[in-house]
Design brief:
CATH superfamily: Zn-dependent exopeptidases
Largest sheet: 7 strands, mixed
Order of helices and strands: EEHHEEEHEEEEHEHEH
CATH architecture: 3-Layer(aba) Sandwich
Distance between the termini: 65 Å
Radius of gyration: 18 Å
Helix content: 25-40%
Number of helices: 6
Oligomer: single chain
C-alpha cells in the first residue's frame, strides 16, 4: 500500500502545545515557529542559507513566544514545520500558503504544485495546527473563560533592500480593541518604534489566523511582529519577552470581562 503521508510518524505531530492549562486569558500562537522541513520535501531546491533565513521561519519568534508562555502562564500552540512547506497563516485556497517565491528567493519545491499536492500539504500541516487552536480556544470558552488571542511573529530588518526602522508591529484586522490597548500601553511605557499594522497590515493577507480564530468568535485578538535582529539571541529574546509581557498585562487590564476596551 502506498503511504501518502507527508509527515512520517517519526517526525512527530504538525504542532506543539505548551502549557495547555495555563492560567492566563492569553492564548499564544506561533505559526512560523520552525525551520524544520518535512523529510519528504527534502531541501525544496534551496541552499542552506535560504533554509536558515527568514523565508523559512520567523527567526526568534518561537523562543520569545515560549518565554511569554512561561511569564504569563499562557498556553502556546506552535507549528513544528517550515512555513515553506505550508504557511499556516494562510488558508489553503491562496497561493501564499505554498509560496513559490519569497522575497528574493525562488522556491523550486513549490513551483507548479497540483491541487493534489496542495491538499496533501494542507491535510498534513494546516488542518491539524488550526484544529488544535480550535480545540484549545473552544475548550476555554466552554468553561466560561475569557480568551485573548495573541500571535507572535518576527520580520526581517531589510526587505527587498529597504531598511525597516520599526521595532515592534501591533497588527489587527477589523477588531482593533486589543491593538488599541497595546498601542496606548506602549506610549505609557515610553517604548520607541512600536507601530500599528507594521510592517504589514490586513491588506497584505497576514491576518488569517486572527480572522479564523478571533473575529469568528468575537474574542479580542492581535498579531505581533518583532524585528528579528532584536531577538536573534537569548538576551534579546528575554528583553523583548519582558517588554511584551508588560504590554500584554497592562492591555489585559484595559479590557473589561466582555473584552471591551475601557475608556477610563
Amino acid at each position: 500500500m502506498h503511504d501518502d503521508r507527508l509527515i512520517e510518524p517519526s517526525e512527530g505531530p504538525a504542532f506543539a502545545v505548551r502549557r495547555p492549562d495555563g492560567a492566563s486569558d492569553v492564548v499564544l500562537i506561533c505559526e512560523h515557529a520552525s525551520k524544520t522541513m518535512p523529510k519528504a520535501l527534502g531541501t525544496m531546491g534551496l541552499d542552506e542559507a535560504a533554509l536558515e533565513s527568514h523565508i523559512a521561519w520567523d527567526i526568534g519568534a518561537q523562543r520569545v513566544a515560549e518565554m511569554l508562555s512561561d511569564r504569563l502562564e499562557a498556553p502556546l500552540v506552535s507549528q513544528r514545520f517550515s512555513r515553506l512547506a505550508y504557511d499556516c497563516n494562510r488558508p489553503p485556497e491562496v497561493a501564499g500558503a505554498y509560496p513559490d517565491r519569497s522575497e528574493i528567493y525562488d522556491v523550486p519545491g513549490n513551483a507548479g504544485l497540483s491541487a493534489e499536492d496542495k491538499a496533501r500539504r494542507a491535510e498534513a500541516l494546516y488542518h491539524p495546527f488550526h484544529e488544535a487552536i480550535d480545540a484549545l480556544v473552544d475548550g476555554r470558552l466552554s468553561d466560561g473563560r475569557n480568551v485573548v488571542l495573541v500571535t507572535v511573529h518576527s520580520f526581517t530588518p531589510v526587505y527587498f533592500g529597504t531598511p525597516r526602522e520599526g521595532h515592534l508591529g501591533i497588527l489587527h484586522d477589523d477588531d482593533s480593541r486589543f491593538a488599541d490597548a497595546m498601542l496606548e500601553a506602549a506610549q505609557v511605557l515610553e517604548l520607541d518604534q512600536v507601530l500599528r499594522n507594521y510592517p504589514y497590515g490586513p491588506q497584505d493577507g497576514v491576518t488569517h489566523t486572527l480572522q479564523r480564530h478571533g473575529l469568528t468568535r468575537q474574542i479580542a485578538n492581535v498579531m505581533l511582529e518583532i524585528r528579528n535582529d532584536l531577538i536573534t539571541d537569548e538576551a534579546g529574546q528575554a528583553v523583548w519577552a519582558a517588554r511584551i509581557a508588560e504590554l500584554l498585562e497592562m492591555s489585559l487590564g484595559r479590557l473589561n470581562p466582555e473584552g471591551v476596551q475601557d475608556d477610563a
